[in-house]
Amino acid sequence: MEIIRTVNLNLWYGSKQVLFDINMGIEKNRVTALIGPSGCGKSTLIRCFNRMNDLIDECRIEGSVIIDGYDIYSEDADPVEVRKKVGMVFQKPNPFPKSIYENVAYGARIQGVKDKKELDRIVERSLKQAWLWNEVKDRLNESALSLSGGQQQRLCIARALAIEPEIILMDEPCSALDPIATAKIEDLIDELEKKYTVVIVTHNMQQAARVSDYTGFLYLGKLIEFGETKQIFENPREELTEKYITGRFG
């Protein structure tokens, strides 16, 4: 069952067109990877799914992004409500300069949760879902900046989970991490898809092959091919996809 559908999605920064007629469907409770060379539009595309591009001056979008049957670019759509449904984890871990506890509680506080017991429950649940609870449960009042890079990234995932989104976007979440921290995040993604829909942008094709059910290959702002990951990597339909996956360009 589809949870996200893009219809003839085009995007410009000023006069420069960055995305061209993107038509794709993303399945609920599955992991979808977007691959392609640097500058091909992967990050720009996933930022369309939670309207993060709204924050960029001179950004113009045409077409539709339909989430749960609702066009998030319609005139009556509320970007704040969209972002409650669609959480985001960035390339570099970006915890707030606050305690571990306050990082996770932040979203719930903004949504008006004031009860300490409820906040405690949300923080514990989110840290457990991000596989971080056992490592930090005795130091929740310490600064989040005291954590290792891999722990900080899992904290950012916990922060995204705290507001109970349906969809989690991950923009190269492992590119700043070592192999051991990367393996933990990949294992976590496997676990998260039981409850959430995950869309991950990655430069690492082995990672895409390991963690995703579906893969889209972008090149120069166009979606060249989209399908089940096994098919994309073992039997691509497009010559351009095959060249990229076999390392003959990009």
Give the N-terminus to C-terminus distance in angstroms.
32 Å
CATH class of one domain: Alpha Beta
CATH architecture of one domain: 3-Layer(aba) Sandwich
Structural class, from secondary structure content? alpha/beta
Main β sheet profile = 6 strands, mixed
By CATH, the superfamily of one domain comes out as: P-loop containing nucleotide triphosphate hydrolases
Q: N-to-C SSE series?
A: EEEHEEHEHHHHEHEHEEHH
**If strands are numbered along the chain, what order do they take across the biggest sheet?**
6-7-8-3-9-10
User: What portion of residues belong to β-strands?
Assistant: 25-35%
* Fraction in helix: 25-40%
Question: Short description, anyone?
Answer:
Helices cover 36% and strands 27% of the residues.
Care to describe what's here?
It contains ten helices and ten strands. The protein has a domain at 2-93 and 169-245: Rossmann fold, CATH 3.40.50. The strands form two sheets. The chain has a six-stranded mixed beta sheet with strand order 6-7-8-3-9-10, sandwiched between helices. It has a four-stranded antiparallel beta sheet with strand order 2-1-4-5, with helices on one face. It is an alpha/beta fold. A hairpin with a 2-residue loop joins strand 1 and strand 2. Helix content is 36%, strand content 27%. It is globular. The model has no long low-confidence stretch (mean pLDDT 95). Helix 4 packs across helix 6 (149-161).
